[in-house]
Amino acid sequence: MHPERRTHFLVWVAAVLCTIITTCVIIAGVVTFIGYLVIHPRIPDVSVVGASLDTFRFDSAGVLVIQSTIVMRAHNGNKKAHARFYNWHFIFSLDEMDIAYLQIADPFDVRKNSSVDFNYVAQSTPVILDPETEDWVDGSLKRDQIAFNLKGSTRARWRVGLLGSVKFTCNLDCQLRFHRNGTYIPSRCTSQAK
Ligand SMILES: *[C@@H]1O[C@H](CO)[C@@H](O)[C@H](O)[C@H]1NC(C)=O
Ligand SMILES: *[C@@H]1O[C@H](CO)[C@@H](O)[C@H](O)[C@H]1NC(C)=O
């Protein structure tokens, strides 16, 4: 047995492994960075470009019926690569009460420098509100401003020649506000990609 030599050997192996890993990470970083510079990309994003509150009926028994139309846009600002969107999954809710899931099951492509719009009709099943939510809805109606939440994410990916693909997550967390008469109060609702 040569315990000292053994130790030296392991340290040596560890050092070599570390060097290889570090070099790989640096090369990957440089390649990705150059890729970005060459493509000069605009990151894919998702936004709400329009909406209306078509039905908002609330009767004295505390039963609420909601129907809303939401227009969502998947945008690919990249002038050189198609974008593929997948895992599209958003939740439309009112005061923590989920009203509709806005989902697209299959991946879809958005051409270079273009966008695709989706019209969602989000409909709630009639729900009996608990007193707290009822108060909240009452208050909203009095203020003439009903605020919904739209929250969720989609994944997007570019296929970039030799580099393979670049992936993003587009997160949305917005308030969609409406007047009592159903008119949308426009506000910025665009994803920040990561
Ligand atoms: C990208 O789209 C914008 C507006 O839709 C247009 O003005 C521009 O010319 C397009 N660029 C290319 C390279 O297609
Ligand atoms: C709805 O109400 C708002 C403010 O009360 C008003 O600005 C808007 O024009 C109305 N829309 C319609 C379609 O009546």
From TrEMBL:
Transmembrane segments: 9-39
Family annotation (PANTHER family): LATE EMBRYOGENESIS ABUNDANT (LEA) HYDROXYPROLINE-RICH GLYCOPROTEIN FAMILY, LATE EMBRYOGENESIS ABUNDANT PROTEIN
Keyword terms of this UniProt record: Membrane, Transmembrane, Transmembrane helix
KW Transmembrane helix (keyword) present: yes
InterPro entries in the cross-refs: NDR1-like (IPR044839)
Organism: Rubroshorea leprosula
Highest taxon above the source species: Eukaryota
Localisation per UniProt entry: Membrane
Major site of localization recorded for this protein: membrane
Keyword Cytoplasm: no
Coiled-coil ranges (or none): none
Protein name: Late embryogenesis abundant protein LEA-2 subgroup domain-containing protein
Example of a GO cellular component annotation carried by this entry: plasma membrane
Gene Ontology annotations of biological process type: defense response to other organism
